[in-house]
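Newbie here. two chains, one complex. Structure please?
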Amino acid sequence: MEDKTIPVTLETVVAEVTKIKAEGSRLITMTCVDIDEANMELLYHFDKDLKDHHLRMKIAKGQPVPSISPVYFAAFLIENEIEDHFGVKFDGLVLDFGGTLYLEEEVMRTPFCKYGVTRTDGAAGGEAKAASAETA
Amino acid sequence: MARTIVPFGPQHPVLPEPIHLSLTVEDEIVKEAVPALGYVHRGLEKLADIRDYNQMIQIVERVCGICSMIHALCYCQGIEEMMKVEVTPRAKYLRTIWSELHRIHSHLLWLGLYADAFGFESLFMQFWRIRERIMDINEATTGNRVIVSVNVIGGTRRDLTPEQCAWILSELNDVEKQFRELQNTMLNDYSVKKRTVGVGVLTKEQAFELGAAGPMLRASGVAQDMRQLGYAAYKDLGFEPIVETAGDCYARGKVRFRETLQAIELVRKAIAGLPEGETAVKVKGRPSGEVISRVEQPRGECFYYIKANGGKNLERLRIRTPTFANIPPLAVVLPGTELADVPVIVLSIDPCISCTER
C-alpha cells in the first residue's frame, strides 16, 4: 500500500483531492487511525480504473481538518462518522451533524480512540482534545 | 403550498432495518432528504482491540448476516496478503462457490423485498420460496443457513464432496428454472414497470461522483465490479460485470435479476473446474503491516483497511460497506421524486443498515 500513498498536509489536502477528482478518481472512503496520545492519521482512499491509491495526512489531536466534502459530496457521511468515532473536527462540512451522526449530544467520549480523546463541550460543536489514557 | 417535514423511518413497513430520512416535501414532491443513522451501531471495528486476528473472522462475519461469507473472505484475503500466505487453488474455488451462493440468496431476498415495496406480494413470496433452496444448500454444506463461517486464514475449513457438488448442481437447475419463470413478471409486467421505470434516476456522472457502489453504480452505466480484480477464482472464470444504463429503479432491479443468473452460472463453472488438493495451508506467525482488501458483495464494493504491528491484536480495522457508500447517492436521488415513490427508491439501493453501522 505504501507505494501507492502520497503524503499531504492540512494546507495541501484539498488541492490534492481536487486534482485527484479532476483526473477521474472515485472516492472510496477515508480512514482515521489513532497513532498515540498526541497524533492521528487520516487516510484518503481513491479508485481509478480498479486501481486504488491513497493520501496520508498526519494530524495533531484537536487540530481541525479541512473538509473535502465540497469536492466530493460523498465525503460528508465519512467525515461525520470520523468525528463521532475519533472527535476529529472538519471545517467546511457540507452537511454537519456536529458529532451526532451516531452519538447522542451529551456523549463526551470518542469511542474509537485507543489513547483517550474526549470532547470539551459535548458532541454538538465540541472540539476534540487529547486526554490522558482514558478509554471509552 | 408550505413545506412539510415528513419523517421516513426508522420504523417503516418497507424497511427491514432502521434508518431515518427527514423528508422535506412540498405538494407531495420531495425537496430535500437528510439521512440519520445510529439506531443499530455496534462498533465492531473496535473489537479488534480485544479479539485476536483469528477471532476477528467471526466478528466480521457478523457485520452482515446476508453476506457474512464475503466479509470473512475480504478480511482473510487482507490478512493473507499481509502474511504472504498463498491460498490453495481448491480453497479459492470453494470461496467463490460459497460467495456466489451468498450473492444468489441475497439478491433473491432483495427481489422479494423490492416486490413487496411496490405492492406485489405474490411475487415477493415466489422469490423467497426459491431462496429457501439456496439456504438449504448453505445449511447442508456449511452447517448454517446464514453465518456459514467457512473461512480461515489460509483457506477454508470445510470442503465439498463430489456428491454435494452434484446435488448443488441439481438444485441450481431447479432454482434457475423457477427463477426464469418469474423473469417475464419481474421485467415486463405493467404494474412493475409503472412503479419503477424512470423513478429515482441516478445518472452515470452522479453515480461516479457520489461514490455509488454495486448494482446502484452498474445500473447507471458504470462497468465496475470488484470481481474484475480477479480475486479468489474469478480470474479463471471469465467474469464480466452486468451493466444497465437507465439508472432508475427498474435498471437496478434488472441488474440484480441478471446477476442472479450470472451467479448461478459462476457456481456451475467453479464446480466444474474445482481443483483437487488441500483446502487450507498452515499459517505461522502474526500479521504486520498495512493492507487494503476489496471484494464485491451483493450490494457492491466492500473495502477493508487492516493495520497490524506483529501483535495478536490488529492495530486498526476499517470496514467500508456498500450501503454506506450508497447513502449519499440516495440523498441526491430523492429530491424531485414523489413521496409515494420514496419506499421503492430506498429499497432500490438494497439498504443493509447493519452493514452500514457495523
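Moderator note: The longest strand of chain A covers residues 39-48. Strands of chain A lie at 5-7, 26-34, 39-48, 51-60, 65-66, 90-91, 117-119, 128-130. Thread marked as resolved.
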